[in-house]
Amino acid sequence: MPELEPETDPGEAGFHPGRLARIDRHFARYVDDGRLPGWLLTVSRNGRLVHVSRYGLRDIEAGLPVETGTLWRIFSMTKPVTSVAAMMLYEEGAFELTDPVSAFIPSFAGMRVYAGGPESSPLTVPATEPVRIWHLLTHTAGLTYGFHRTTPVDGMYRNAGFEWASPAGLDLAGCCDAWAGLPLLFQPGSEWNYSVATDVLGRIVEVASGQSLDEFFAARILGPLGMSDTVFHVAAEDLTRLAALYVAGPGRKAVRDDTLGAVGKHEPRFLSGGAGLISTAADYHRFTQMLMHRPDSPAGELDGVTLLSPRTVAYMTRNHLPGGADMETFGRRLIADAPFFGVGFGLGFAVIIDPAASKTVSTEGEYSWGGAANTAFWVDNAEQLTVSFYTQLLPTSAHRIRSQLRQLVYQALTG
């Protein structure tokens, strides 16, 4: 298990220790008043951990505390891993970003687009262009999620068995074929909508590599980076390390949900490249360090292991939305814990393009993403900073954790 403890003095890393303590006090209140079960936070600068703190319980009912080795369902923090996997294959010439998805998943040929009507009898029109791989990476494919509950197409996903889970018996290939049989929400490339696109991308990784997604991850990313605790399901001997899952109940208090909490306890048939991984803070810290560009270690490399070229990482972490638009204006209002003004989207990452418009202290060019249970990370190359936060509470809209975390981390950065 990788180590997870501070490696340098906060003052030497440009942080005010007293101001760092504000972060812990603030989020301790979330636990003390019942809004969160427990949490773990890491802050690093210049490639070295500056602050590691934890508070509360990973399992309230069992009285088990959050520990540095606690296992967390990272949900959509799986997406950057899948995006890195795809771009590793891109670097090998396995595909071009403009290639149609149907070249790898034939059921995506001849897609149709929702044009009106109820979910029971929708009106559709032909797609004006194929769904392409870059559409998947940027969430502009026209796919969606059943849990959005904002459009009739979302309802069609739920009716097909896709909301917080997938239909029993379907593997990744089967899920992709099922999604291809549903209409797109909009013409490919015309809007941004958070979706199962990264799951479809995971299937392309499988087809292009000839390996299952878990095999590719283990052999090409997790093993080389030393992320030994990052898996699609937890071994029986490690189940006590897995945090329980909670949802925001009455008064926004955390209420245990063992139905959704079953995720990660059994080997899944559907390998979700969009939301399927379980990880530890120590493991994901190594992933963020690989992503960061440092003077002594270019982006895409860590401890002598190179996954991507620095130019590829730089390309992935710039805004790819047409005309330099942000997600708030090019996308649809969804369930995020904060608006997306000033935030663009690259190839698998959100990207700050205008800190003033975002109304949160941040750095232009900073890239990030988070998971449904209020996990989050970001990488700030300009400040040589990475931050990650872990808890297990659905949904992200229950609290404003991510924006509060940003303001508290940056106010502590004094040098």
Characterize this entry briefly:
By secondary structure, the protein is α+β, with helices and mostly antiparallel strands.
Number of discrete helical segments? 12
Helix content: 25-40%
Average pLDDT for all residues? 95
By CATH, the topology of the largest domain is Beta-lactamase
Provide the structure class. Answer: alpha+beta
Note poorly predicted spans.
none
Number of strands: 17
- Architecture per CATH nomenclature, i.e. the level-2 architecture of the largest domain: 3-Layer(aba) Sandwich
Rg for CA atoms: 20 Å
Count structural domains: 2
Q: How many angstroms separate the termini?
A: 32 Å
CATH class of the largest domain: Alpha Beta
* Side-by-side strand order of the widest sheet: 3-2-1-16-15-14-13-12
Full CATH superfamily name of the largest domain: DD-peptidase/beta-lactamase superfamily
Structure description:
There is one protein chain. Strand 10 and strand 11 (305-306) form a beta hairpin. The chain folds into 2 domains: 17-79 and 212-411, DD-peptidase/beta-lactamase superfamily (Beta-lactamase); 83-209, Beta-lactamase (3-Layer(aba) Sandwich). The chain has 12 helices and 17 strands. Helix 2 runs parallel beside helix 6. With 415 residues, the protein is of the alpha+beta class. An 8-stranded antiparallel sheet has the order 3-2-1-16-15-14-13-12, with helices on both faces. A 3-stranded mixed sheet has the order 8-7-17, with no helix packed on it.
